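Bug #77: duplicate submission created two jobs. Keeping one. Sequence:
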Amino acid sequence: MAASDPVEAGLVASLNRPGGNITGVSMLTSDLMAKRIELLTELVPKATTIGLLVNPTGQRAGLDTKEAKAAGRALGRQIEVLNARSADEIEAAFVTLVQRRMGALVTGNDVLFTTRYEQIAALASRRAVPTIFPWREFAVAGGLMSYGITHTEPYRQVGSYVGRILKGEKPADLPVLQPTKLELVINLKTAKALGLTVPDKLLATADEVIE
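Kept job's structure:
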């Protein structure tokens, strides 16, 4: 199971025809960056400048930045990169975000942020920054919104492939899978605390609304 693009990383020849001794599941991480920014602008239309939190030493930082800036241009928003390599630098990034009067924040895909989602949710609340995160745990912890895959589906897909390979199928013949279920989670309580009115259209499309 890989968060990075397995073709770009040189693990497989293509998603449909891996061609070697490796197959598995690609987790659609940076691919969803544009949608996260779109959702954020729907909820916070006045946010003309949006911060992008990335770990500059992480594998996904470059692609996350590229995808976010392209989405920003398409939506008429300025994307400003905020670097964080540690928990302390995450806190410093929020200070910079507030000082530069950025209207919202989208977090990149990095294990540092995945393991520090409670810290990010608390900082977003304390600094009154509308923030979207890749995983639902962030919204459950008090963050505003999350959009991404569910954790259970890719593990189930990997388990299925393990069984098939143990029964004799070759990895080269098994296409790399991608999760099919994406979920939008909105914390309505947090939205109200931030003075935001969630559009009915957004509420209707949400998979889960936390009140």
